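Tutorial handout. Part one gives the primary structure; part two gives the three-dimensional structure as tokens.
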Amino acid sequence: MASIPHLGALRHGGRLREATAAYPDARGPWLDLSTGINPEPWPGARASAEALRTLPDPALLTELEAVAARAFGVSDPARVVAVAGADAALRLTPLLLDGRDVALVAPIYGGHVEAWSARKPLMVASLDDRRAIDADILVLVNPNNPDGRQVARAQLAELVEARSALGRWTIVDEAFAEVTPGISVAALEIERLIVLRSFGKFYGLPGVRLGFVICDRNLARQLRVVLGDWPLCADALSLGLGAYADAAWRATTSACLATQARNVDAVLSAAGLAVVGGCDLFRWVEAPDAHRLFVGLCRQGVLTRPFAEHPTRLRFGIPSRQNLERLREALQAARHAA
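Part two.
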């Protein structure tokens, strides 16, 4: 198996500077497909110069939570708490919840593993596992990162209801749910359900650092006390307010991403790669020489996402239409070099 010089690639996507340093002779400019982020971001305006010179207005935060609630189908905006990114949200929840037994449905985004590491979480492969059903706290991603596995809304709702009645918490990370809205449980008002949402992935602006926790009013109040009056910067407020109100852009973008994902499937299949999972923001690929292919693509200036625990899998983000041919050429060159 080929080595991967920058170990950060095995932790999560991004880290383009590390890749650039590890492969100084790579063909440029780099194409970063290591994350599941929309390559065509929402085109609205950032905060004004005046907004940057003053403390963020708490009234704008309340307005943003109301606009986001409508976009998520949540009837009570008091249940929607804005935070500085979904990753921050998932790391805050262990500080607020009691519970000895924690189960994570694997494979799962590594941030969840890190967030709950002090409680030595159980890694379970399915919601049918009795340990998942009985755990004090159950965490899953839907659609899942990295493999795109989906749990139907009705199935998940039934499980969450039953667990809540027994005093058990269920955390559903819906970071990629904008491209699969039919499976979202964000609108369900169940006492011990927590839903996490991400802004940056679907709207293509991860640097804004904006996310949401959707939960019962009591936990929402606790979380707001922890976060204080200014949990977001002016840019997050401005961009979030505009983007979540733009239903037309959301609908058009969903259709475009679905089409582009199918185009990516064709390119990957032509390179001999089996697409075995994913959603319209990323593809999960089976490749017996996945780590070697990762290195070959890096030498072509294309960064993908390898996995230490899944050495025959790679995840590809969805490139823009303009970069689809670049991906095709990089795959051909990497295969030829191998």
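Part three, for discussion. Residues 247-270 form the longest helix (24 residues). The first strand starts at residue 31 and ends at 32.
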